[in-house]
Design a protein that fits this description.
Largest sheet: 6 strands, mixed
Shape: elongated
CATH architecture of the largest domain: Alpha-Beta Complex
GO molecular function: glycerate kinase activity
EC number: 2.7.1.31
Oligomer: single chain
Number of strands: 13
CATH superfamily of the largest domain: Glycerate kinase, domain 2
Structural class: alpha/beta
Number of helices: 13
Distance between the termini: 12 Å
Strand order of the largest sheet: 3-4-5-6-9-10
Number of domains: 2
Protein name: Glycerate kinase
Order of helices and strands: EHEHEEEHHEHEEEHHHEHHEHEEHH
Helix content: 25-40%
Family: Belongs to the glycerate kinase type-1 family.
Enzyme class: transferase
């Protein structure tokens, strides 16, 4: 083995992608000490994307105070690449469900205003490229709050700004974009979106994701009607039809708002991360690519990190091994998508707490065992 590329996602609730990569490297180095190791911490646009890209791009994290989902002040962070040309934002940092106590969840009033503030701060930093991961939201406002934070005026019949929250969209009569943040015209914005829900209807933002944000059946209907009205006003006044675009319903319709008010592309999260980290260039000449995440199951093939890594590696004809915290029923589908072999890091029957607490040690041991197997079979 002369060159090994290590590109895992984070192992949720246990350790980051960089920590995972370090443990795998340590395990393999015990057997192949002279190999070149390239570590590329990965993510798919969800939780951990900022940290993974900061680690991969030698970047920094900036923390600012913004408006939370219920209008309160929250501390939210986003990433800046080492050359400060790329900003990586997770909308959940400012507008996420985890910021709202269960008993206070109410998508009629929650707002994405804080997400817009994060975008504005990145623009003021002078970045050239912004990646926004949308997922885990507490909101159902169609990205209206985000737009308001960036200078868009959403006005009612009296010419007054409508309040924050999904319910207020019913009162929207006119949109004024004259004061939209001027630096938006100077940047490329890509949106990491791994769901294809439309904005409206039975598969839309309100029906599918509203209940987990506190919406009753009645509220789901109210929110869907409000978003329909919002989409109609956008279509009439901005000449943009967002209601039927795949992914428009992501993050409570934030996908639609980004499409309507910003010049964005909705893309697979892992694809964006692969591009931002220059993964294809880094794997040139590699003998093996190692990836992984907390769990491999039947959903892994739908846009998750290991499959994105495997597909990119297979384009270069490389072997791919995945290591996961667990291999769930149905994980066998990954073998048709570029992964040659998959292994669980758990050494035997154990508790969840043990697996989480000792995961890095188990991961290093599993990596060492794999390296030993590769060395033995190569003889």
């Amino acid at each position: 083995m002369k060159k090994i590329v290590i590109a895992p996602d984070s192992f949720k609730e246990s350790f980051s992608a960089l920590e995972a990569a370090n443990a795998i490297e340590k395990g393999f180095k015990g057997i192949f000490p002279d190999a070149e190791y390239i570590k590329v911490p990965m993510a798919d646009g969800g939780e951990g994307t900022v940290q993974s890209l900061v680690d991969a791009l030698d970047g920094t994290v900036k923390t600012v105070n913004v408006m939370g989902p219920l209008g309160e002040s929250v501390s939210a962070s986003y990433g800046l690449s080492g050359d400060r040309k790329i900003a990586v934002i997770e909308m959940a940092e400012a507008s996420g469900l985890s910021l709202v106590p269960t008993e206070q969840r109410n998508p009629l009033i929650t707002t994405t205003y804080g997400t817009g503030q994060l975008i504005a701060d990145a623009l003021n930093e002078g970045v050239e490229h912004i990646i926004v991961g949308i997922g885990g939201s507490a909101t159902n406002d169609g990205g209206a709050g985000m737009a308001q934070a960036l200078g868009v005026k959403l006005l009612d019949s009296n010419g007054e700004e409508i309040p924050y929250g999904g319910a207020a969209l019913t009162n929207l009569e006119s949109i004024n974009v004259d004061d939209l943040h001027p630096k938006l015209a100077e940047v490329t914005i890509e949106v990491a979106c791994d769901v294809d829900n439309p904005l409206l209807g039975e598969q839309g933002a309100s029906a599918i994701y509203g209940p987990q944000k506190g919406a009753t059946k009645e509220m789901v209907q109210q929110l869907d009607k409000a978003l329909a009205h919002y989409a109609n006003v956008i279509s009439q006044q901005l000449n943009k039809d967002v209601k039927d675009i795949a992914g428009a319903g992501a993050a409570g319709g934030l996908g639609a708002g980004l499409l309507a008010f910003l010049d964005v592309r909705l893309e697979s999260g892992v694809t964006l991360v692969l591009e931002a980290t220059h993964f294809t260039q880094k794997i040139v000449g590699a003998d093996l690519v190692i990836t992984g995440e907390g769990r491999l199951d039947h959903q892994t093939i739908y846009g998750k990190t290991p499959i994105g890594v495997a597909r990119a590696a297979k384009m270069e004809g490389m072997s791919v091994i995945a290591i996961a915290g667990g291999l769930a029923p149905g994980h066998e589908t990954i073998y048709d998508q570029g992964i040659d072999a998959a292994f669980s890091l758990v050494p035997g029957i154990t508790t969840l707490n043990d697996a989480l607490e000792n995961g890095l040690e188990y991961l290093e041991l599993t990596a060492k065992n794999l390296a030993t197997m590769i060395k033995v079979t190569a003889k």
